[in-house]
Amino acid sequence: MTDARITSQAISLTPLSPLHIGCGEDYEPTNYVIHQNVLYSFDPAVVPLDAALRKELLAAVRSGSIPSVVKFFQRNADTFRVFAENALPVCGQCVKTHRLMAEKGEGRNQNKIARTTYCATNEGNAYYLPGSALKGVIHTALLNRVNAGAPRDIKDDLDKKILGGTFSDSPMRFLKVADLLQTKPVPSRIVMARRCYKGDGQALDRQGGIPAPFEILERGAVRPFRGSLSLTPPNAEQRAAHVYGSAEEIFRDLNAYYAPILKKEIEKYARISEGRAWSNALSQLLQKLAEDIRHNRVAVIRIGKNVGAESIVLQGGIASIYKEKGKTSTKTEWRVMDGQETLPFGWCLLERSDDPVREAVKSFCARQPETPVIDLTNLFEERKARMEEARRKEAEEEIHRQEETKKRLLAEEAARADDVRRSQLSLEQLHLEDLVKKLKAVSGDVKPGSEPYNEVWSFLQTALSWSADLQIEVARELGPVAKAKNMYQGKKAKELKAIFRTLRQEN
Questions:
Q1: Measured between alpha carbons, how far is 450 from 145 in angstroms, rounded to an integer?
Q2: Among 31, 24, 19, which Cα is nearest to 85's?
Q3: Sequence ranges of the domains in the chain
Q4: What's the rounded Cα separation, in Å, for the pair 191 and 470?
Q5: How far apart are CA 360 and CA 351, in angstroms?
Q6: Which of 53, 110, 210, 417 could cross-link with 49 by S-S, CB 3.0 to 4.6 Å?
Q7: Is 373 left (phi over 0), alpha (psi -120 to 50) or beta?
Q8: Would you call 341 helix, strand, or coil by DSSP?
Q9: Mean pLDDT of the 261-267 span
Q10: pLDDT higher for 4 or 286?
Q11: How many CA atoms lie within 13 A of 82 on its CB side?
Q12: String of b and e for 263-275 (b: at least 16 CB within 10 Å)?
């Protein structure tokens, strides 16, 4: 039964800068191919291969060389991309490093790409934002407000010291944040990120800093994610303080915490030529949303991975997560280095879903560079056709295997029966049977002087000393074969005929 005291508020989220929430998985180079600057990820186990491709793949795997396996997949990209679970554009630098492995066997670059959170569906992979990630952001903002800049020891349990309790006494226990699920196509890309100095925004020297590829959710889609907040008031027996009573209270804390961080971010990117366009666009958006922000109808937050240490530090330089030697600030941060742009990670707009879509948000998203969403519909149709063809061939092969098995079992049964039959024959009868079989196997005529002829002649001489019944059997079994092999020729023809008459007991 639903608790009548629970207040539920549907919420929507719009990315304002590249968004990445790590899921602990990578796009492995043996699980994707790149075709025309688009990455197609797939599960090799579900791709039906013919005998030739299976042999080729097995050889690549047995070589123990990852580049050899990557080369195999890339050579057969048209086969494997049909079975893509996800497809998204790839930046030029990532294409280049992958090509070094797939074409030249270069193994130094592992070509692993950090994935953002996703879930599998019947139509492929869909993105989502974990409710726990948003709840963590809210938790930090709540700590920041209640603490109000008070000094804290680095070893303090901040929930206990600031919020008055953990677990059952924590105010976060009374807030449930559902996962924000994808409600429309979300533009996504593979981009290269690099650690940059915060002060001047310049990238680290290419000989020092190592770039890293990430899957990002791009800005440009309006409210592509939707979830909900569920708020439950504590009862009289529960001691929790600072419990949220409305979405507006949550938005208030989020805005109070992130406003100074965002102000510095905008000023910093305004000093970077490659970041100035984004900085100006976001400044304009905030000006148009100023009234909504002031009344806590919306909140601008930073969420996900690589958002900078400041995003988890309370005002006053207090780390919200205890680390014995943790830092509350760093000299460098991750930034997306995308062509002519330098962008920060993780800025998003949080809104109530029942509010109308704001024109300022529509305008901001419309002005962002367009990132195509790869439509897999045609590939799904081709995949369906290939799977049906593979099932048809498998059914035919299974019928063939069953027929072959039936033939083998019948042959084995016949062989066993023949062994039983031959075990009941005398040595003379076995000799006769083997000779008849051998003579039938000779191609063409059996001429006098040949080895088969001499073997038959010798056998007949021996048979003349056998019993009358055996002699008749020899004549009956061997005579027609001798005639068929045209053995009645030459000087011994008359003598051979005479021997067969004797064996038939005609003399």
A1: 111
A2: 31
A3: 7-18+112-374, 29-109, 376-424, 426-507
A4: 91
A5: 13
A6: 53
A7: beta
A8: strand
A9: 91
A10: 286
A11: 14
A12: eebbebbeebebb
Could you tell me how many helices (H) and strands (E) the chain has, helices first?
A: 15, 19
Taking every pair of C-alpha atoms in the chain, what is the biggest distance, in angstroms? 133
Question: Which tokens in the block code for residue 398?
Answer: 């299974």
Whose CA is closest to 82, among 302, 333, 384, 457?
384
Cβ–Cβ < 8 Å for 303, 129: yes
DSSP-assigned beta bridge partners for residue 191: 214
Q: What is the pTM for the complete model shown? A: 0.76
User: Per-residue confidence at 353, pLDDT binned at 50, 70, 90?
Assistant: very high
The amino acid occupying position 60 is A
Residue among 340, 197, 362 at smallest CA distance from 276: 340
Task: Give burial (CB, 10 Å; 0-12/13-18/19+) of 429.
Answer: middle
Least confident window among 69-73, 199-203, 434-438: 199-203
pLDDT tens for each residue of 414-459: 999 999 999 999 999 999 999 999 999 999 998 988 998 999 999 9
346 phi-psi bin (left φ>0, alpha ψ -120 to 50, beta other): left
| Residue 90 bridge partners (DSSP) | 190
What are 21's two structure tokens? 């929430």
Q: Kindly give, in sequence order, each residue whose CB lies less than 8 Å from that of residue 136, ignoring residues fewer than 6 positions away.
A: none
Q: Which residue has the tokens 């002060």?
A: 199
Rg (CA), the chain: 41
**Which pLDDT does position 451 carry in this prediction?**
92
